[in-house]
């Protein structure tokens, strides 16, 4: 049986998990991942400042999620600990090397994926070296992803985003969306991650007119400076406003979270997203979506001690794969997944 042309839209870790889930159901040669280019934090932020290039950090994270337990994969996911190289990501360095040889982020990621045997089409939304600008409800603006996350005026909500300078949208991304049977909005940073991608000219025009099945995977936690106080309904409303159409399926975690995990996150300003979803034409799919294999990593934080955000929360690829299989069986599309998920050869547990 044929499989879908699928496009995922995301900004790093959440998108990597979605691609891991899809890999359980289908080969990834007809799956395209549209990735953000405005992350300005950590090692990738330092590289983009030095090289005057768009961010490669989210591209690196997606490749890392699909790289497997090969020598290549272990090298790519390596992050140095201690000394002058403390926090330096080998994946970022490999991408930067190929870009320094005259390539774009897209061509660098494509060459690495070919070398590492990764079939998915990883598409940076643009090659423009731009920052995302958060538009606040009081009329002020904040330039930069990390500047938005760490801003003092967290009680003033974000109402929109744009880029500075305006980006030139990748035509590979436009074409992928035009051909898509499914479009999946991945969990991740709502306004300055997903919103930053969708602010690229032309994307929303294609999505709003598309008859593709539109799926969104909801966030489990709010994020400081970005979605403070937002409920599941608020998240869904923002996403539908961004894409200019109704979302067909919205996936929500309802399995609870261990108190120890919540305590670590609450100390940094995160709270669990409240499920207040009713009926609005969207099919709400609830389940225990969190990967419990990551609970033991709750003490691991972002390597930059100045930010120190917990990074132990992941959606569960196996549960997501079962849900995607179910969605494929209840949608009227002529193409679908095989009845049985494919055998997973390996799973990357951390990236």
Summarize the structure in words.
It is a single chain. This protein has 351 residues and is an alpha/beta fold. It has one domain (6-330): CofD-like domains (Rossmann fold, 3-Layer(aba) Sandwich), CATH 3.40.50.10680. The protein contains 13 helices and 10 strands. It has helices at residues 13-23, 42-51, 57-66, 71-77, 90-100, 105-116, 145-149, 171-178, 190-198, 203-209, 232-243, 259-266, 317-330; strands spanning 6-10, 31-35, 121-124, 131-136, 141-143, 158-164, 182-185, 213-217, 249-253, 283-287. It has a 7-stranded parallel β-sheet, with helices on both faces. Helix 1 (13-23) runs parallel beside helix 3 and helix 5 (90-100) crosses helix 6 (105-116). The longest helix is centred in the last third of the chain and has 14 residues, at 317-330. The two termini are 32 Å apart. The relative contact order is 0.16.
Strand content: 5-15%
CATH superfamily: CofD-like domains
CATH domain topology: Rossmann fold
Element pattern in H and E: EHEHHHHHEEEHEHEHHEHEHEH
Biggest sheet: strand arrangement = 3-2-1-7-8-9-10
**Total strand segments:** 10
Rg, rounded, reads 19 Å
Mean pLDDT: 87
Under CATH at level 1, the class stands as: Alpha Beta
Which word captures the global form? globular
């Amino acid at each position: 049986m044929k499989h879908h042309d699928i496009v995922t839209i995301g900004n790093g870790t959440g998108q990597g998990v979605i691609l891991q889930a899809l890999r359980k159901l289908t080969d990834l040669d007809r799956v395209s991942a549209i990735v953000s280019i405005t992350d300005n934090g950590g090692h990738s932020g330092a590289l983009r400042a030095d090289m005057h290039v768009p961010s490669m950090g989210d591209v690196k994270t997606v490749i890392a999620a699909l790289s497997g337990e090969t020598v290549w994969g272990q090298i790519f996911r390596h992050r140095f600990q201690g000394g002058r190289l403390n926090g330096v990501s080998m994946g970022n360095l490999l991408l930067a090397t190929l870009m320094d040889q005259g390539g774009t982020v897209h061509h660098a990621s494509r060459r690495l994926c070919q070398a590492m045997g990764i079939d998915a089409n990883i598409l940076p939304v643009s090659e423009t070296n731009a920052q995302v600008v958060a538009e606040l409800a009081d009329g002020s603006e904040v330039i930069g992803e990390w500047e938005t996350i760490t801003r003092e005026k967290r009680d003033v909500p974000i109402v929109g985003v744009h880029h500075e300078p305006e980006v030139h949208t990748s035509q590979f991304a436009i074409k992928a969306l035009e051909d898509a049977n499914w479009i999946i909005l991945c969990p991740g940073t709502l306004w300055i991650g997903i919103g930053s991608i969708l602010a690229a000219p032309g994307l929303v025009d294609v999505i709003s007119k598309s008859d593709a099945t539109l799926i969104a995977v909801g966030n489990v936690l709010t994020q400081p400076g970005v979605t403070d106080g937002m409920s599941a309904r608020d998240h869904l409303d923002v996403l539908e406003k961004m894409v200019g159409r109704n979302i067909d399926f919205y996936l929500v975690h309802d399995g609870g979270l261990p108190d120890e995990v919540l305590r670590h996150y609450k100390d940094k300003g995160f709270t669990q997203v409240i499920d207040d979803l009713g009926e609005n034409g969207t099919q709400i799919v609830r389940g225990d979506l969190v990967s419990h294999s990551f609970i033991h990593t709750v003490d691991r934080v972002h390597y930059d001690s100045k930010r120190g955000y917990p990074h132990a929360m992941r959606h569960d690829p196996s549960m997501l794969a079962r849900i995607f299989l179910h969605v494929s069986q209840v949608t009227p599309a002529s193409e679908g997944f095989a009845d049985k998920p494919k055998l997973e050869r390996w799973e990357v547990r951390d990236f």
